[in-house]
Amino acid sequence: MIKLYQFQLSGNSHKVRLMLSLLSLPFETYDVSGASREQKSPEFLALNPFGQVPVLVHDEVVIRDSQAILAYLGKTFGNGIWWPESASEMAQVVAWLSTAANEVAHGPNLLRLHHRFGREINVSAAEAVTAQLMQTLEQQLSKGDWLVGSSATVADIAIYPYIALAPEAQMDLLQYPAINTWIARMQALPGYIGMPGMAA
Ligand SMILES: N[C@@H](CCC(=O)N[C@@H](CS)C(=O)NCC(=O)O)C(=O)O
């Protein structure tokens, strides 16, 4: 059995729901109450000592961190496609996972937390990280349909949510044609599911 501990409106939780849906895996969700800070409760800290969602429980296996969860699901259920077998492609996927945890988290994610949820941040620093990230993504996606190799991988899933949530981060996507086409390509994948606030 697969159980996902999540916040409904978290992009990091969405990327796990999206991966599970693309893999046609049955799962149940548990909505952690951010309002009552349930993620910092002793019960939840036993699952993730960092007190953050998402956490995935698959039978006896407990995994924290959305990137780690995607790697686990891609390797376990992805038939060598979602998590590439070649060492060089796998390394490229890991590089994009690192980008999701760094540039995406410190750019588009922070801008959305600020504009959608009112968190105080250093807006100009987040905008600078976002501008460089978007330029790099645009260049990469001008060269091929997917971030790594010739089909969608865990790399695309890891990067996708906070880019598609651009309207809530007050990011202008119009100037990035290759990123827009990639968003449409992602949304056409069989089993795709979105979340409120995403660009269509
Ligand atoms: N690197 C982590 C980041 C997780 C994260 O930032 N989770 C947020 C929701 S998207 C959270 O749980 N925030 C509540 C808190 O930190 O108390 C991942 O990718 O899963």
Structure description:
This protein is an alpha+beta fold and 200 residues long. It folds into 2 domains: 2-77, Glutaredoxin (3-Layer(aba) Sandwich); 87-187, Glutathione S-transferase Yfyf (Class Pi), Chain A, domain 2, CATH 1.20.1050. It has 8 helices and 4 strands, in the order βαβαββαααααα. It has helices at residues 11-22, 42-45, 66-77, 87-106, 108-117, 123-143, 154-164, 177-187; strands at residues 2-6, 28-31, 55-58, 61-64. It has a 4-stranded mixed β-sheet with strand order 2-1-3-4, with helices on one face. Helix 1 links the parallel strand 1 (2-6) and strand 2 (28-31). Helix 5 crosses helix 6 (123-143). The chain is globular and about 45 Å long. The mean pLDDT is 97. The site of glutathione (GSH) has 12 residues, from helix 3. Residues 7, 10, 12, 39, 51-54, 65-67, 101 line the site of glutathione.
List the helices and strands and how they pair.
Blueprint: E1 2-6, H1 11-22, E2 28-31, H2 42-45, E3 55-58, E4 61-64, H3 66-77, H4 87-106, H5 108-117, H6 123-143, H7 154-164, H8 177-187
Parallel strand pairs: 1-2
Antiparallel strand pairs: 1-3, 3-4
Helix pairs in contact: 1-3, 1-7, 4-5, 4-7, 5-6, 6-8
This protein binds glutathione.
